[in-house]
Design goal:
Blueprint lengths: L16 E2 L2 E2 L3 H4 L7 H6 L30 H6 L7 H5 L3 E2 L5 H11 L5 E3 L7 H7 L13 H5 E8 L11 E2 L5 E2 L4 E10 L5 E2 L2 E12 L12 E10 L26 E2 L4 E2 L7 E2 L4 E9 L28 H6 L16 E14 L1 H7 L12 E3 L6 E13 L8 H37 L3 H20 L6 H9 L5 E12 L2 E13 L3 E4 L19 E11 L13 E14 L11 H4 L16 H23 L8 H11 L2 E8 L3 E3 L13 E2 L3 E11 L4 E2 L11 H4 L6 E2 L3 E13 L4 E11 L4
Parallel strand pairs: 4-17, 7-18, 21-31
Antiparallel strand pairs: 1-2, 3-11, 5-6, 5-8, 8-15, 9-14, 10-11, 10-16, 12-13, 16-18, 19-20, 20-22, 22-27, 23-24, 23-30, 24-28, 25-27, 26-27, 29-30, 30-31
Helix pairs in contact: 10-11, 10-12, 10-14, 14-15
Length: 759
């Protein structure tokens, strides 16, 4: 396992070289954040036995540091749990709702198809993995009014530097900072048992995690998400409870086989738990942590499709109900980022205690978990249920620094996206065509042909799986070799309507140079550490428009030229979400927009993500379903991954927000006038051009009553950098609408990139 925290230094390091004294670097101070694989196998995956009573704790055997590969297959089978890959423990992804495929497949083996329980057998080496992999199924007492959860007080504090014993820390407020890749999160958690009785626990861990969550739309008070995808997990093993003592700092020389009581002389707090895993009353415990925000997610985050954009760090968006549950006052500081109301992407440092229900009920009263709607409950080998005793997350805002691709990289990515999209569509159409041939053969009683088609279908699946990303060198070479300027183009046939019918009077083409308009990201006011004067100019740019009117064949010289009443630009904020399956492809502007030829005539825009992507896939899906129903699943075999990919796109949800741009100039004039369009008439065509200058500082939501000049748009709401992940995407474009004198509409869309380039 690679330790990404050791590959970069803190951005503040240069500021620490004062008066000729060099402050020790991160590498020189702390020995490790993420564990090696051997550390993982000898702690989380160690073959230890959990005692069933307190007395037996005194006779615990020493930790078993043997490699888990020595555990034979029979032992693995008796564990009754699915194994979590080692990589997922540090930076991996886990899907904790209704979409985790591997968990769903394994659970019949784990519990039996009709069982309501998952057994985490403490006599095996993987019981902790089972709990961590099914953490969403544990009843959570954090927000419950119960004696035991109220007795445990947790407090997470962030500090400027790495915490050390005997050194007074300088605290920082994470709610005032915006973090990026490579930044360090230092601090500690304070734990206190305010009751007069000892509280045992089974697991305690500290981690930095990133979550994609969808909340319950129906019940706004329900804090349990209906969907959670944990795309980032980084455990601090020195801060979490372990059988072994971990030397956190380079200067630490503690015995790894002994867990001694260690105190911090600054406040007298205990820095370790004892071997009995107990929170004693009248004690304050303190556990240090240090995390480094990684440059990327693990490749396993997008295991099914291997998409490079999907392993980039997505930005913080929305606000989860978990965060509001811990910090209700943050509702007043909610950032308006146009996320879906029930959806969030969040990051935070979390501390969590997990234990067994029976160990607490004698001292703190009965714990009723029947109110929790959980499909399968986690129990140990004796039927004792596992419960989250208490957890706390202190959230941080993370916005990734944008990687600026070279021209070749950008062209290659466009080609890759197009190939993968076309490949997916062609695979579906091949299945449909093969299915139709099978139906026709059956109708003609040609059964031998049907068998051959079925066999051919299976072989085609294998070949398609082998060449899923079929790059064509010639296609890439053609793109690079083009010296001509490419344009976005849309067309509108113009008709003269009368009582007797409609007459074609020509075709109007609207085009604009094919380019991305890059706008620099500006954080909300409270996160701005530097002046934004240098990046504000990017919020103003010009969009050239070219008009071409083609006369109808055989027309006379007295053709009436189109009259344009208005030109209206808008910034469209598009957020796309998948609630169940991971999105199988990467989208870009060219794949989605400027596709409809003559459907832009009316007031309603038909050139949308819904019309161009979702609906065509829904039609293909209906054909597949009809063939599958006709032929039967055994005869018409469909690759499971293909079915999931089609489902994902068919079920995508989009939220669009159209923002008006009041400060718009046309050929450097503040107001549009139809006389600005100067037609240059030739034999069969007439051409004209106009320059549309937009100032995104003036952006307002439709219906806004105040003056856009009183407050800049980046002070009213936040436009996060565009991104794509397995379950959520954000993109931007300028939609320019031309309104003609006959009330026809012609729309063109040009892409906008929001990029974070500041350090």
């Amino acid at each position: 396992m690679v330790n990404p925290s050791l590959n970069a230094e803190s951005s503040d390091e240069s500021k620490q070289r004062v008066a000729g004294q060099v402050k020790p670097s991160f590498d020189e101070t702390i020995s490790s954040i993420l564990p090696s694989y051997s550390m993982f196998t000898s702690t989380i995956r160690m073959n230890a036995t959990v005692p069933e009573n307190e007395d037996s704790n005194d006779n615990n055997p020493p930790p078993d540091y043997t490699d888990t590969n020595s555990i034979n297959s029979d032992d693995r089978r008796t564990s009754l749990s699915s194994s979590l890959p080692a990589g997922q423990l540090s930076l991996g992804a886990s899907d904790s709702a209704n979409t985790r495929t591997t968990a769903g497949e394994d659970e019949d083996f784990i519990t039996g198809s009709n069982s309501d329980f998952i057994v985490a057998d403490e006599n095996t080496g993987s019981w902790r993995e089972t709990i961590l992999d099914n953490i969403h199924r544990l009843p959570n007492l954090t927000f419950e009014s119960h004696k035991i959860s109220e007795a445990v007080k947790l407090e997470i504090q962030f500090t400027k530097d790495i915490c050390e014993i005997g050194v007074k820390p300088e605290h920082v407020d994470p709610s005032l900072f915006e973090y990026k890749q490579g930044d360090f999160l230092n601090g500690y958690i304070k734990i206190q048992n305010t009751s007069d009785k000892a509280i045992p626990f089974e697991m305690f861990y500290l981690l930095f995690e990133g979550n994609f969550m969808i909340a319950n739309k129906i019940d706004r008070s329900d804090k349990h998400p209906v969907k959670i995808r944990k795309f980032l997990e980084m455990f601090d093993f020195s801060g979490s409870w372990n059988e072994a003592h971990i030397n956190r700092l380079v200067t630490d020389v503690g015995n790894p086989y002994r867990c001694c009581d260690i105190f911090d002389p600054i406040d007298g707090s205990y820095l370790s738990f004892d071997v009995k895993r107990t929170i004693y009353p009248k004690r304050v415990y303190k556990r240090f942590f240090t995390f480094r925000i990684p440059d990327n997610l693990l490749d396993s985050e997008c295991n099914e499709h291997g998409l490079s954009k999907h392993v980039e760090i997505p930005p913080t968006m929305g606000m989860s109900r978990w965060e509001l549950g811990h910090f209700p006052e943050r509702e007043h500081n909610r950032i308006k980022d146009f996320s879906l109301l029930d959806t969030s992407i969040s990051y935070g440092v979390m501390a969590r205690f997990i234990g067994r229900k029976s160990t607490w009920e004698d001292d703190f009263g009965k714990i009723n978990t029947s109110a929790y709607t959980i499909d399968k409950r986690l129990i140990n080998s004796k039927g004792d249920e596992y419960i989250i005793l208490k957890e706390l997350t202190n959230y941080v805002r993370v916005i990734e620094r944008t990687r600026i691709p070279t021209d070749n990289e950008r062209l290659m990515k466009l080609l890759e996206n197009k190939l993968m999209y076309n490949n997916l569509v062609s695979r579906i159409k091949e299945k449909i065509e093969a299915g139709k041939k099978m139906v026709k053969s059956i109708e003609n009683n040609e059964f031998d042909t049907t068998v051959d088609i079925g066999r051919q279908l299976t072989e085609t699946e294998i070949e398609l799986a082998k060449c899923k990303q079929s790059y064509k060198r010639d296609a890439y070479r053609d793109i690079k070799a083009k010296n001509v300027v490419e344009n976005y183009e849309v067309f509108l046939p113009l008709l003269k309507r009368s009582l007797t019918g409609s007459k074609n009077i020509g075709t109007l083409k609207l085009s604009s140079i094919k380019q991305e308009y890059c706008v620099f990201y500006i954080p909300p006011a409270r996160f701005r550490e530097h002046s934004i004067d240098e990046i504000i100019p990017s919020w103003k740019f010009d969009i050239p428009l070219d008009l071409t009117f083609s006369f109808p064949v055989g027309s006379s010289s007295s053709v009436t030229l189109p009259s344009i009443k208005s030109i209206i630009p808008e910034l469209v904020v598009s957020t796309v979400r998948s609630s169940r399956m991971p999105i199988p492809i990467e989208f870009n502007h060219d794949l989605i927009y400027n596709k409809q030829v003559d459907n832009n005539r009316g007031y309603k825009d038909e050139d949308t993500f819904q019309k161009n992507i979702i609906i065509p896939f829904q039609k293909l899906s209906s054909e597949l379903y009809s063939l599958c129903k006709t032929l039967g699943a055994e005869n018409f075999k469909l690759e499971k991954q293909l079915v999931d990919d089609v489902k994902s796109i068919c079920e995508l949800e989009e939220k669009k927000m159209n923002l008006c741009i009041p400060d718009t100039k046309y050929n450097d004039n503040t107001k549009f006038n139809s006389k600005m369009i100067k037609w240059d008439v030739k034999e069969s065509t007439a051409t004209a051009s106009i320059n549309v200058g937009v100032n995104l500082e003036s952006l307002v939501i439709k219906g806004f009553q105040g003056s856009h000049t009183l407050m800049k748009s980046y002070d009213r709401f936040n436009l996060v950098p565009d991104f794509q992940s397995c379950f959520m995407t954000r993109s931007y474009h300028i939609r320019i609408t031309l309104l003609l004198s006959n009330n026809d509409h012609l729309r063109i869309k040009v892409p906008v990139r929001i990029q974070k380039i500041t350090t």
